[in-house]
Design brief:
Blueprint: H1 13-20, E1 30-32, E2 47-51, E3 56-60, H2 85-113
Parallel strand pairs: 1-2
Antiparallel strand pairs: 2-3
């Protein structure tokens, strides 16, 4: 459920203080933990280190991000791959196809040189 319009957007006060106390032209990363805070227009051009539960992910704020929350740009889960016998066969087939394509390209390049 979204936040009521009469309440306004949630922006953590600590983030606002950090932005106001920031010297002009400072390009350092500002670490934050408030993933639920909404990105405002004053934050454009600043790099924030958004905490994902384990480490800080650098997020450079652009105009398109205004109105979104910081947590949307700092994912908390990492997808590695699905396992199993079928997946292994698919990966081997893709690798073999890539090797065949590189051999064909190399053979074609050698023929042009002669």
């Amino acid at each position: 459920m979204t936040r009521s319009l009469k309440k306004g957007l949630f922006i953590d006060e600590r983030i606002i203080k950090k932005i106001q106390n920031r010297p002009a032209g400072d390009k350092s990363t500002m670490n934050i933990w408030a993933r639920a805070s909404v990105i405002s227009p004053e934050m454009i051009g600043i790099t924030f280190g958004v905490h994902n539960g384990r480490k800080h992910i650098p997020v450079f704020v652009t105009e398109e991000m205004v109105g979104h929350k910081f947590g949307e740009f700092s994912l908390t889960r990492t997808f590695h791959r699905h396992g199993g016998k079928m997946q292994k066969e698919i990966e081997q087939a893709a690798k073999q196809k890539e090797l065949d394509a590189s051999k064909a390209a190399k053979a074609g390049g050698d023929a042009k040189k002669k």
